[in-house]
Amino acid sequence: MSAGQTDLRYPIGKFTPQASHTSSEIATCLDQIRALPAKLEAAIAGLSDSQLDTPYREGGWTVRQVVHHVADSHMNAYIRIKWTITEDTPTIKSYFEKLWAETPETMLSPVVSLSLIRPLHHKFALLLEQLSADQLQKEFLHPETQKHVAIHNMIALYAWHGAHHTAHITQLRKRMNW
Q1: Which of 29, 72, 89, 155 is least enclosed, having the fewest CB within 10 Å?
Q2: How far apart are alpha carbons 22 and 28 in whole angstroms?
Q3: 110 φ, ψ to 5°?
Q4: What is the domain extent for residue 106?
């Protein structure tokens, strides 16, 4: 990739886990998690079916699939965090994101997933803001990577994840002059 060219797969850069996060960093991430539903809704506002069915990059998901993916992914994140705070280093269940993006309901209006994301993020943020410093350090084990993932990194990851996929849509809109 030449200088000045953006990697369409990572419009805001890749996520990097950290050994720890300050309370200020966690608060910023929680604000991003709370704001995601409105930002995602604004990103797709006024798009036609044809535009919703446009991939954000060659070989990538359509805008419609991106919105449905965010709902699926963030539901899984919420459940993984609930397991982590109620069990001792649970091994979470992984899933095939690419196949989930092709299930029949992903052809429906993205409003279906937006109407799920709104209350999910409300509850997600309420849960996360109540966690103690000790709970933020609790970890789960990912069965595929065999890595331990701390809740504080999950909070940062899902703040990034929402912004990442919203940027897929907003940058496509800019490139296409929509």
Answers
A1: 89
A2: 10
A3: -65, -15
A4: 23-176
Q: What is the mean predicted confidence (pLDDT) over 19-36?
A: 97
- Over residues 100-147, the pLDDT tens digits come to 999 999 999 999 999 999 999 999 999 999 999 999 999 999 999 999
Evaluated on CA atoms 140, 146, 147, 148, the torsion sign reads positive
- Do 85 and 138 meet the contact criterion of CB atoms below 8 Å apart? yes
Q: Is-above-0.85 flag for pTM?
A: yes
What CATH number corresponds to the domain at position 31? 1.20.120.450
The DSSP code sequence of 153-172 is HHHHHHHHHHHHHHHHHHHH
The first and second tokens of residue 52, run together, are: 């919703």
Residue whose tokens read 């809704």: 41
| CA gap 131, 30 in Å, rounded | 12
Pairing mode of beta strands 148-150, 139-141:
antiparallel
Average pLDDT, the chain: 96
- Residue 8 maps to a domain: no
The identity of residue 168, as a single letter, is H
Q: Is residue 4 part of a domain?
A: no
Let me know: does 54 contact 62? Beta carbons within 8 Å: yes
